[in-house]
Every structure is written in structure tokens, then in C-alpha cells.
Amino acid sequence: MTYPDLVTFCGGNERQAWCLAQKLPTYREMTEPELEQAVLDLLVKVAERSQRGNVQLQLTYEGGERRDTIRGHY
To answer: Helix %, strand %, coil % for the chain, to 5?
Structure first.
């Protein structure tokens, strides 16, 4: 996958593509399904790191943008 393909994958958001390229330098060797799984893995890691006490974090990926919903108390 080329960098322009990555930008397209991110819904045209070049900032998001740049961030993904920094976190996933092997994106060039990935197929689109592999990249989707890698993005999901990153989101799960963020969610697991964010869990504190009684906080429930829900992650969704909509239209090329990550949406976080936090419920509970810190």
C-alpha cells in the first residue's frame, strides 16, 4: 500500500494517515484487511491503557475517524 492509498484508506484525512504511518511503519507491506486489523489492534491498546477504575471506553471507527465515548467516573 502506498502513502496515497493510506490517505484514501483514512477517508482523505492526511493528518490521520501521517499518524498511522508513524505508528505502523510496515503499512507498505500490508493489505487493506491487514491494515484494518492493525488499526483495530491499536485502538484496543489505547482503550486498555485508558481503563481506570470504573471507566468504560467505547471505540468506534466511523468514516475514517476514531470516535471515543467515555462513561463512568475517573
So the answer is: 55, 25, 20
